[in-house]
């Protein structure tokens, strides 16, 4: 039987991360008998139980959304509006205004001076649309404004929408006749679709899940987020009304920029070691393959500009009279038709690009 002294030696060695064999320290994992496993016990029921012995691929794979052409057309209008806002507020000066950005020659206004001014945050925007099809508001990443790594577009927007529902704002979720203080907030956003220009991180996916947002359409995949939105959705209880939003990658809508952004980012990540993202006047060049650096480059800007151009060129819609349906198949009361959605999106861009300044709380 192990003596008390041997046991204490084992505990001390395990705490230090060293295994003992016959009292001799060996390299390797801790071997304290009865040490708790690092994973939780296998659940007896629920979604986690269903995936317990499945592959990670099974966990991140969601069924392709079944959308009618009219629904796709509607989504694409908002994707075009969001791209237009991204272009309008583009600012690639992530490492400051002084220095050289070899990936941004088209944004150069004079020798080593680039368009954009003070950097407010990354070029990542999102907007939220209510059940009727009205845009509630938009927001941008504002990490730099707040010197914080958590001021992401989606989390800012969700918090803002909850605050908007406390007042009768012109872009309010439930119309101007709604009571100023909602009687319930837990499912207030359950008909809201968020459109975001970059796949959401764990913070934003979590906030959208807590907010019971219906779905999130993203224009560009972020490989660094490990498909966390898919995982949260997959693990949401099937019959609960409190589900993580359904993630919809915009390539399933036929949004060309989605694949183009992915390919361009791969190129940037591969070549940035040789061609730095930024060369300061003094000090080491920045060769990081950060996706937010990519989102400053001409490569990325050109793709968003093309998406804006496609939106600007859209004069008519094929499914002009289409309105969305409720879960029981009835038309959503007071919903905008696709034709009205297009007009509304243009009106919102006029608002968003003039009144709704980036870096401020927006107001009419
Ligand atoms: Zn985020």
Overview of the structural elements:
This protein is α/β, with parallel strands linked by helices and about 375 residues long. The chain has a single domain, classed as Cytidine Deaminase, domain 2 (3-Layer(aba) Sandwich), CATH 3.40.140. The protein has helices spanning about 5-15, 45-50, 55-60, 70-90, 155-165, 200-210, 230-235, 255-270, 290-295, 300-315, 340-350, and strands spanning about 20, 25, 110, 115, 125-130, 135-140, 195, 215-220, 245-250. The chain binds zinc ion (ZN). Zinc ion binds near residues 200 and 204.
Q: How helical, in percent, are the residues?
A: 25-40%
Q: Which compounds are bound in this model?
A: zinc ion
CATH class equals Alpha Beta
Number of strands: 9
CATH fold topology: Cytidine Deaminase, domain 2
| H and E string | HEEHHHEEEEHEHEHEHHHH
**What is the CATH homologous superfamily assignment?**
Cytidine Deaminase, domain 2
Biggest β-sheet: strands ordered side by side in the sheet: 6-5-7-8-9
- Would you identify the CATH architecture? 3-Layer(aba) Sandwich
Arithmetic mean of pLDDT: 88
Main structural class: alpha/beta
Question: Rough shape?
Answer: globular
Pfam families: dCMP_cyt_deam_1
GO molecular function: tRNA-specific adenosine deaminase activity
Protein name: Deaminase
Supply database-style keywords.
alpha/beta, five-stranded mixed beta sheet, two-stranded antiparallel sheet, Cytidine Deaminase, domain 2, binds zinc ion, globular, 9 strands, 364 residues, 11 helices, single chain
């Amino acid at each position: 039987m192990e003596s008390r002294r041997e046991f204490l030696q084992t505990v001390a060695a395990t705490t230090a991360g060293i295994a003992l064999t016959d009292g001799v320290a060996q390299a390797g994992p801790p071997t304290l008998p009865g040490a708790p496993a690092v994973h939780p016990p296998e659940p007896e029921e629920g979604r986690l139980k269903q995936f317990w012995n499945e592959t990670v691929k099974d966990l991140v794979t969601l069924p392709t959304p079944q959308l009618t052409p009219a629904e796709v057309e509607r989504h694409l209008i908002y994707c075009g509006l969001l791209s237009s806002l991204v272009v309008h507020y583009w600012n690639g000066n992530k490492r400051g205004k002084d220095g050289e950005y070899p990936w941004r020659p088209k944004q150069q206004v004079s020798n080593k001076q680039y368009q954009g001014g003070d950097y407010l945050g990354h070029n990542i925007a999102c907007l939220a649309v209510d059940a009727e099809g009205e845009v509630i508001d938009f927001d941008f990443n504002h990490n730099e404004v707040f010197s914080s790594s958590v001021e992401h577009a989606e989390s800012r927007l969700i918090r803002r929408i909850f605050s908007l529902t406390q007042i009768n704002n012109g872009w309010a979720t439930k119309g101007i006749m709604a009571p100023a203080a909602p009687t319930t907030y837990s499912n207030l956003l359950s008909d809201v679709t968020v459109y975001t220009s970059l796949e959401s991180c764990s913070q934003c996916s979590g906030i959208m899940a807590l907010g019971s947002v219906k779905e999130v359409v993203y224009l560009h995949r972020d490989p660094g987020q490990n498909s966390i939105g898919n995982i949260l959705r997959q693990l949401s209880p099937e019959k609960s009304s409190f589900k993580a939003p359904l993630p919809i990658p915009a390539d399933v809508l036929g949004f060309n920029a989605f694949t183009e952004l992915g390919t361009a980012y791969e190129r940037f990540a591969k070549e940035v070691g040789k061609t730095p993202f930024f060369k300061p006047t003094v000090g080491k060049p920045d060769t990081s393959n950060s996706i937010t650096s990519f989102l400053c480059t001409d490569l990325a800007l050109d793709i968003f500009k093309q998406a804006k151009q496609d939106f600007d060129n859209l004069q008519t819609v094929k499914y002009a009279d289409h309105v969305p349906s409720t879960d029981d198949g009835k038309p959503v009361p007071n919903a905008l038709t696709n034709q009205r959605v297009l007009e509304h999106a243009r009106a919102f861009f006029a608002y968003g690009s003039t009144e709704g300044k980036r870096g401020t709380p927006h107001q009419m």
